Amino acid sequence: MISERLGHESPAFTLKQYAHVIPGMQAEAAAQVAALIDPSRPPDV
Predict the structure, then answer these.
(1) Dist CA 43 CA 39 (whole Å)
(2) How many CB atoms are closer than 10 A to CB 35?
(3) From CA 30, how far away is CA 24, in angstroms rounded?
């Protein structure tokens, strides 16, 4: 959805452009998604 909103040709292009922006952000985002999926799970970060 993000790729489409930004007008990128594919999700792979979006990842290639932005995945490097802030190292460590991946782990924080994963912890937030995990908390949304399982609210009883203690946060990792």
Answers:
(1) 9
(2) 15
(3) 10
Q: How far is CA 14 from CA 9, 11, 18, 23, 41, in A?
A: 8, 5, 6, 16, 29
List the chain domain ranges.
Answer: 2-37
Where helices occur in the chain by DSSP H, the ranges are 2-6, 11-18, 25-37
Give the Cα separation of 21 and 28 in Å (integer). 13
pLDDT in tens, 9-34: 899 998 888 777 666 777 888 888 88
* Token reading at 21: 């922006």
Six-digit token string for 44: 């990792």
The reply to whether the predicted model has a pTM over 0.85 is no
